[in-house]
Amino acid sequence: DGWARASGRPGVCVTTTGPALLNAATAAAQAYSDSVPVLFVSPGLPLRHPGQGNGFLHELKDQRAAFDAVVAYSHRVTSVEEIPLAVACAYAAMGTGRPRPVHLEIPLDLLDEYAVAPPVAPVPLPPAVPSEPQIRAAARLLADSVRPVVIAGGGSSGAAPGLRALAERIGAPVVTTANGKGVFPDDHLLAVGAGLHHGAVRDLVRDSDVVVAVGTELAPSDLWCGPFEIPGDLVRIDIDARSVITNALPDVAIVSDAATALTVLHRHLPERATTAQGVGRAARAR
């Protein structure tokens, strides 16, 4: 999980059956909540194990179903030949849309089997491209804004250059969620810091005429004290079409990879003469 968060690439956890896998369930559930791609691999009961059980070591009623409740999906392979395809499908799922953890279960009796299993090449996954009309709509709001602010969540972790370029172009203070911490330099003059629950951040959002929320659910776990009061316009950028309308309805919804959307949006915006007002607003909110 930590490696996946730091690298932006799927992490892998190999564990054994029963209590070992269930010990990993808490971490898997957190990875699901935080959109962290982790592949969990574990053995499972043999293919020809009695359906009613017989006291096999680490026997569970349905280990796959138990783990399926906390990850994107849990899949039990039924042959050695299926394993390469199952792994390729897992990586394709983790790289498409909102990243989530996946579990593969390999029956114990397959671990002793030999078979010819040709590798399956990784599926090329192009980035999600933003809608041009939505980009233009967001650009119009930001071009006319006087007091913009940017909120960056964990979904912006791969978009640091674009986030910084946008903030500097529009002179906007940048606040991050806990999962977004590190995507914007803490020593930058436009940086407010991490934490949406602070009173000063709520005041900053309330005072803004345009709020740009990138890769964040604006979730209760981030806000603590109820939803933001957003009297201005709200632009949301998220790779998940459901998340982009959850917790706060946007005036402009951009469903896209954050890095791509920010880069395209930046190109549509005129340069401002100064960022002094944004720097002052950020300083007051810190």
TrEMBL record:
One of its GO terms (molecular function) is flavin adenine dinucleotide binding. Residues 1-62 form the Thiamine pyrophosphate enzyme N-terminal TPP-binding domain. Residues 135-264 form the Thiamine pyrophosphate enzyme central domain. Gene3D superfamilies: 3.40.50.970, TPP-binding domain. One of its GO terms (biological process) is isoleucine biosynthetic process. It comes from the Bacteria. One of its GO terms (cellular component) is acetolactate synthase complex. Belongs to the TPP enzyme family. This is Acetolactate synthase. The lineage of its organism: Bacteria, Bacillati, Actinomycetota, Actinomycetes, Kitasatosporales.
